[in-house]
Amino acid sequence: MKFLSIIASLLIFHLVQSQNYSVENLPENLKNGSDAVVRFSEGEFEILSIDKAKYRTKAVITILNKDGNHNAAIGVFYDKLISVNNFSAFKYDASGKRIFKAKNSDFVDQAITTGVNFYDDNRIIGIDMRQDEFPYSIEYEYELTFKYLYFIPKWYFHSGISEAVEFSRYSIISPEDLKPRQQSVNTDNPEESYEEGKLIWEWERSNLKAINPEPYGLSFKELAPHVIVSPSKFEFDGYRGDLSTWDGFAKWQNILNEGRSEIPQETADYIKKATHNLSDEEKVKVIYEYLQSKTRYVSIQLGIGGFQPFPAKFVDDVGYGDCKALSFYTKSLLQEVGIESDYTLVYGGDNPPIINKDFPSPAYFNHVILNVPLAEDTIWLECTSQTNPFGYLGSFTGNRDALVISNEGGSIVRTPKYDLKENQRISNVEVKINELGNASLKIKNQYKGLEYEYGNLNFYVNYGKDRQKKWIQNSIDIPSFSIDYFEFIHNKDIPSIELKTSLSANKLVSKSGTRYFLQPNIINKNKWIPNKNNNRTQDIIEDHAYWEIDTVIYELPEQHTVEAFFDPIEISSEFGEYYAEIKKGDDGKIIYLRTYKQFDGVFPNTSYENYINFHKQIVRADKKRISFKKKT
User: Fold this and answer.
1) Whether residues 301 and 339 fall in one domain
2) Fewest CB within 10 A of the end CB: N or C in the chain?
3) Consecutive H or E run containing 172
4) Are 143 and 43 in contact (CB under 8 A)?
5) 166 exposed, middle or buried (CB, 10 Å; 0-12, 13-18, 19+)?
6) Is the same domain home to 445 and 588?
7) Which of 214, 91, 96 has its CA nearest to residue 161?
8) Is the domain of 259 the same as that of 405?
9) H or E element at residue 256
10) Quick one: which of 428, 454, 461 has its CA closest to 442?
11) Residues contacting residue 120 through CB under 8 Å, at least 6 positions apart
């Protein structure tokens, strides 16, 4: 078997070396709709022992246009526990002729510490082979040596969106007693064999067309065929663990956290005094706000420090920490007043991975928060923010699975989802129009639930007046106006933000002869219509439900009256509901009322035409005009 394996490897190596990477040799079906084509890619991960592994990869990619040019910038991350070996790079012209071979001086090796990372030992070595003449091909190869076994690289057969694949293979080699676990996503399970007491898994795919996700559909990661592999037994920086169950994973994390919860006596006394005679929920809130006032977030990435929190005493002394350290510090403070909480791993950001509850893996997570299970309710705490409202996770970590690590073990739990009734944007506007068509406006807008994050308002509310003023200028859709006054009122208990502002608007209404024309919806116009797609294949995904409620009251110039009111507009579909009307008030003022509910859910691709029409109707309704003129 060993002899046959060597012969097979030599044959593949000869095929790759001798293949002509001329663009003329590319099948048309792979070029269509593609920015680049993976001509050949191979990855091999070998588990050498419980604390050592090697990874080798090689790829040849033909770049067809400027949108595929990013493939020619190759970067490899490493640190004190990962070394990079045998990094080579080449470039070929459209005919397949080699035009560049990288020398050592062509590679850039530098630290990647940023303003986010307070300190770390992460570095990157890379080379940029991009050019402006297309098509061309690049080839690269490198090897990594891991001084631990914890993560095993995922393998995506496609290198990215709009990129087809001619041939791709991934291999795992492992001693039988360290057999890992695998999850084949959108692809077949591997071919399995054994050689000299080692397990070998191999996945191969060829002639894969480019993946181009459709708007409001599944993401590239959900559509692409890929492989997730995770060790069972492993060792990281001297800490051994078992990843074959969530309880085993939790036990390893608890070992990392062990003996690090001591709080200075002075801080413990202060916390106990500050929470004396309070309910448990009130105690949690006091401690969370104490954390926010005392600490700031920095990223710490040093070996096991990427997974092990700093001791609570250290955070208390220096006043900073990363998500692990700040969450564990908060957990330690709560423990001082008799409240138990659970260290929780989660994915922070957009497009969280779908967790397979039968496949424990650290690859699902990149962030730590805190879960506080009280008798009356469960409170979730984002401990890295100095400004977050108490108990608010928001869109960063809300509505997704997370690994809650308790003393008993690990369990997958869903974080809070913010629904239609919570996510509200409420506008109340008073408009006074003069005979020149100019107007003064008094606006009171409320942003609740996830709408609290509308246009990053949750950040701007904590900025200075100049930046807040720019936010208002960018978020109000009136052609020409000046801001006379504004005020943001931050209510962290709901959470919500209220904006009060006064504006002076020039030419708010247009004039033709003796008539004035006005779009009564001046504050919240919907202009977005989905692109037409007669061949929609994916379901429609709306993951954010919200509710807009608008009231605009107009005071017309003296002796002016509306010529005609449009009939109430009511639009109802599986995607949402819309209602708008304009009517005369008791005091002669004109009142415009509008409500829009956007539902969340997964809708069949066959409904896409209805989806387009629904939004077309709303855009049309929001453009509705009325006319008024002076009484005769």
Assistant:
1) yes
2) C
3) strand 163-175
4) no
5) buried
6) yes
7) 214
8) yes
9) helix 246-257
10) 428
11) 79, 112, 113, 299, 300, 301, 302
pTM, full prediction: 0.90
Q: What is the pLDDT of residues 387-437, one digit of tens each?
A: 999 999 999 999 999 999 999 999 999 999 999 999 999 999 999 999 999
Sign of the CA dihedral with 498 first, then 503, 506, and 510 last: positive
Residue 112: predicted pLDDT = 75
| Residue after which a domain boundary falls, among 414, 435, 466 | 414
State the Cα–Cα distance between residues 167 and 207, nearest whole angstrom.
7
| b/e code 356-389 from CB counts within 10 Å (16+ = b) | eeebbbbbbbebbbbbbeeeeeebbbbbbbeebb
Indicate whether 408 and 436 sit together in one domain: no
Residue 65, token pair as written in the block: 């246009």
Tokens 């001693």 -> residue? 175
Is 442 a domain residue?
A: yes
10-19, 343-352, 431-440, 582-591: segment of lowest average pLDDT: 10-19
Taken as a whole, the chain contains a residue count of 632
Query: pLDDT digits over 152-170, tens only?
Result: 999 999 999 999 999 999 9
Q: Which CATH number characterizes residue 605's domain?
A: 2.60.120.1130
- Asked if residues 304 and 237 have their Cβ atoms less than 8 Å apart, the reply is yes
For residues 311 and 448, state if they share a domain: no
**Cα–Cα distance between 206 and 3 in angstroms, integer?**
26
Q: Is residue 5 part of a domain?
A: no
Is residue 438 domain-shared with residue 373, that is, in the same domain?
no
Residue given tokens 């996503």 in the structure block? 185
Those residues with Cβ within 8 angstroms of residue 141's Cβ, 6 or more apart along the chain or in another chain: 56, 57, 58, 59, 86, 87, 88, 89
Sign of CA dihedral 381, 384, 388, 393: negative
Q: Across the chain, what does the average pLDDT equal?
A: 92
What distance in Å separates the CA atoms of residue 411 and residue 132, rounded to the nearest whole number?
51
* Pair (198, 79) in one structural domain: yes
Domain count, the chain: 3
Nearest to 330 by CA among 256, 270, 264, 381: 381
| Domain of 152, in residue numbers | 21-239
Residue 573 counted as domain residue: yes
How far is residue 253 from each of residues 240, 283, 304, measured CA to CA in Å? 10, 26, 11
* Distance between CA atoms of residues 290 and 272, nearest Å: 12
Dihedral (Cα; 351, 352, 358, 360), 10-degree rounding:
130
Residue 337 covered by a domain: yes
* 552 close to 620: Cβ distance less than 8 angstroms: no
Bond from prior residue into 495 cis (ω within 30 degrees of 0): yes
523 — phi, psi (to 5°)? -110, -20
User: What residues are paired with 588 via a beta bridge?
Assistant: none
Name the nearest CA neighbour of 427 among 533, 513, 548.
548
- Residue 301's pLDDT band, with cuts at 50, 70 and 90, is low
Amino acid identity for residue 147 in this structure = K
Question: CA–CA separation, 556 vs 543, rounded Å?
Answer: 41
